[in-house]
TrEMBL record:
It catalyses: DNA(n) + a 2'-deoxyribonucleoside 5'-triphosphate = DNA(n+1) + diphosphate. It comes from Nocardioides taihuensis. Monomer. Gene3D superfamilies: 3.30.70.270, 3.40.1170.60, 5' to 3' exonuclease, C-terminal subdomain (1.10.150.20), DNA polymerase, Y-family, little finger domain (3.30.1490.100). HAMAP family: DNApol_IV. The keyword DNA damage applies. Transmembrane segments: none annotated. The active site is at 106. The gene is dinB. Residues 7-191 form the UmuC domain. The record marks 16 as: Substrate discrimination. It is an enzyme of class 2 (transferase). This is DNA polymerase IV. Residues 440-460 have a biased composition (Pro residues).
Length: 460
DNA sequence: TCTGGGGTCCTAGGACCC
DNA sequence: TCTGGGGTCCTAGGACCC
């Protein structure tokens, strides 16, 4: 805890939804929900108009639709968000060299490194108001809420106190009285599970927490967590603003609209994800020794398996092979809703084979060709159709006859074999490059002398 | 057809080494 | 031969954050 209020926390208001409203004027003033729009999607951000209907982050999209059916439901446009975020971070870095981004829409700024004449409340208030105005300007109208205090914890609490488009400075010395009446969940690290444990011990507010001894808290929550909460309840927080935090892991995962049951499909998914992970590792000049998979079963049970190599890799084929091997250990017969691949134990260099011929190669040179993830056109399926499946397309599978694409994405196509004879046939998933899938083809243009038949109107 | 995706940090047990 | 401990690495799971 510092003598001055010199830690600033900035939080862009309803960020993803606000970017959509900025870019599409027709959405302004209306409820907008950004998130997964599939059957198993959840809300990432709801505009304030949508929040009035009870739509919240992390709520299932299904629930959000029932609460606010007239909202616009959009999947994210992450390039736009990243671009806006970069502009904001630039503004922050023009104020202080010590900026720690927490996500696209949040960051801490250390005002003690900003070279201000002093760190009095009026001075930091003025700096923050200028900063908010600059953010508004460079992002074409986005608003931010800002909090300033003597620590990260207090700054973060403060930025929440006057949302949206607010600024709160917590004067040094007033932290504890601000916190005491608040619910324990204001403390970062107190989520549903910890809150429930504390509730059962009769601890509801920060004031309650402050009365519990360090020993008892450690007994209740474990060493690190207990000791951390004990300090935060007293507003004791010395965590520095860290501008360059190192990446510890890189992962890709996906949840499918219908559970996967076919091992071949699962392997194909893992192979594609391994390619994505390897590509991102290389793009960052990283490689890692531990390859993990994550599997969420039909009943939401989540399993993980990992294996560690003696030297780091950034090679798609290696990650893919290990991932498929880890999957082989698991019983997935009940169906799988989520699959993921990750690499951790990262180093910013690659352990070359010290005794091999390519000693001295730079990072990323190993097995370049091996990383080319299957772009080979498969028999009977023109390359341009790969990953081009969309719901409504007509497909044919040899075993089950004609079906319709029900869901598509992340390398998986879900087909409902629904025909006039079997109105609600079985649903099966395929890898999107499965040669058994025959793509829809646009109708041939009518011959010049053929009679032109009127198109039946397409339902909206 | 309740429950995303990308992360971080912590715990606990077992292996292994000194 | 028996006993004891500490430290580190690895794996699996869980809580939490935005």
């Amino acid at each position: 805890m510092r003598p001055d209020a010199s830690v600033l926390h900035l939080d862009l208001d309803a960020f993803f939804a606000a970017v959509e409203q900025r870019d599409k004027p027709s959405l302004r003033g209306k409820p907008v929900v950004v998130g997964g729009v599939g059957g198993r999607g959840v809300v990432a951000t709801a505009s304030y108009e949508a929040r009035r209907y009870g739509v919240r982050s992390a709520m299932s999209t299904r629930e959000a639709r029932s609460r606010c059916p007239h909202a616009a439901f959009l999947t994210g446009r992450f390039h736009a968000y990243r671009e806006a975020s970069e502009r904001v971070m630039e503004v922050l870095r023009s104020v202080s060299p010590l900026v720690e981004p927490l996500s696209l829409d949040e960051a801490f700024v250390d005002l003690a490194a900003a070279g201000l004449p002093d760190l009095s409340v009026p001075t930091v208030t003025e700096v923050a108001e200028e900063m908010r105005a600059r953010v508004h300007e460079v992002t074409d109208g986005l608003t931010a809420s800002v909090g300033i205090g003597t620590s990260k914890f207090i700054a973060k609490v403060a930025s929440d106190l006057d949302k949206p488009d607010g600024l709160v400075v917590v004067a040094p010395g007033t932290e504890v009285e601000l916190l005491r009446p608040m619910h324990v969940t204001v403390i970062p690290g107190v989520g549903p599970a910890t809150a429930e444990r504390l509730r059962r011990a009769g601890i509801h507010t920060v004031a309650d927490l402050e009365r519990v001894s360090l020993d008892e808290l450690v007994r209740l929550l474990g060493k690190a967590h207990g000791a951390g909460l004990w300090s935060l309840a007293r507003a004791e927080d010395d965590r520095p603003v860290e501008p360059d935090r190192e990446t510890k892991s890189v992962s890709v995962e996906g949840t499918y609209d219908t559970d996967l049951t076919d091992r071949k499909v699962m392997e194909s998914v893992l192979t594609r994800q391994a390619g994505d992970v390897a590509r991102r590792l290389r793009a960052s000049g990283l490689s890692g020794r531990t390859v993990s998979i994550k599997v969420r079963l039909y009943d939401f049970t989540t399993l993980s398996r990992s294996t560690t190599l003696s030297s780091p890799t950034d090679t798609a084929s290696t990650v893919a092979r290990l991932a498929r091997g880890l999957l082989a250990e698991l019983d997935t017969s009940g169906g799988v809703r989520l699959l993921g691949v990750g690499v951790s134990g990262l180093a910013d260099w690659i352990q070359e084979d010290l005794f091999g011929d390519d000693f001295g190669d730079g990072p990323g040179d190993a097995d370049e060709a091996d990383d080319a993830v299957p772009e080979v056109p498969l028999p009977g399926l023109p390359a341009r159709h790969r990953s081009g499946w969309a719901p409504g397309m007509d497909v044919v599978h040899a075993d089950l006859g004609r079906g319709w694409v029900w869901g598509a994405g992340r390398g998986v196509v879900t087909v409902r074999f629904e025909t006039a004879e079997t109105p609600s046939g079985p649903v099966r998933s395929f890898a999107d490059d499965d040669p058994a899938l025959t793509p829809w083809r646009p109708p041939e243009p009518p011959a010049p002398d053929a009679p032109v038949t009127p198109q039946s109107p397409t339902p909206a």
